[in-house]
Write a structure and sequence with these properties.
Layout (H helix, E strand, L loop, with lengths): L23 H14 L4 H4 L8 H23 L35 H16 L17 H29 L3 H17 L5 H4 L3 H7 L4
Helix pairs in contact: 1-3, 3-4, 3-5, 3-6, 4-5, 5-6
């Protein structure tokens, strides 16, 4: 599905990460995209192909979800200000603190736009770290790759939570509701399939997931 038809390219929140042509992960990316574009059941699309390595499959999807969520947030970021969203929240019951162990060594309350800016910068830095995301297929993934992907996807899910709960009207106004729903369903089925996001993190959008993903 070509999301660029519905989300302005120039509003991408951070530069888009791409795979180099000719690499294994570029081929996997194309395979995943072809399955997505074919209109197949999204629940089936996320399954690991029999001949592929799990870590490669995770790497391709983490980058893809980063790009898509980045694009979605970029579309509404001008409406997400310190004044409109003084905390990174998902309604009154959920508030997220930022901690990266470097700039913010302790969990810190930030306005939503600052939280998301720090989050995207943190994810991008990890994706560009060739020790964590090896470019050469002969270089093995590190032992902490799986847990790190889980942390990245958990935090990226919080962007969905914030956008759906606080800015969904803006996406509806540009006619993008069906497309963000498809993006979320793809993400949701993937993290459920590989147990990448704890159920408690999915709670804020539980009712919506039950409706659009038919999952209870």
């Amino acid at each position: 599905m070509d999301f660029t038809k519905y989300f302005a390219k120039e509003k991408t929140f951070r530069p888009k990460k791409k795979f180099e042509q000719g690499t294994l992960r570029y081929q996997l990316h194309k395979k995943a995209q072809a399955s997505l574009n074919s209109g197949l059941d999204l629940k089936g699309v996320v399954s690991l192909p029999a001949e592929e390595d799990l870590h490669d499959w995770l790497a391709v999807h983490v980058v893809d979800f980063f790009n898509r969520i980045n694009l979605i947030y970029g579309t509404i970021c001008e409406y997400c200000t310190k004044e409109s969203c003084p905390t990174m929240s998902g309604g009154p019951k959920y508030e997220y603190m930022w901690c990266d162990g470097e700039k913010y060594k302790k969990p810190t309350a930030l306005p939503a736009n600052e939280y998301i800016s720090n989050l995207m910068e943190w994810v991008e830095k990890l994706i560009n770290n060739e020790t964590l995301f090896p470019v050469n297929v002969d270089v093995p993934f590190p032992k902490n790759f799986g847990p790190t992907c889980k942390k990245m996807l958990t935090r990226l899910h919080r962007v969905f939570v914030h956008v759906y709960i606080h800015h969904f009207d803006k996406l509806v106004s540009i006619g993008a509701e069906a497309h963000i729903n498809t993006c979320y369903k793809h993400f949701y089925y993937f993290v459920i399939e590989f147990q990448m996001v704890d159920p408690k993190e999915l709670e804020p959008l539980k009712e919506m997931a039950a409706r659009i993903c038919h999952h209870r």
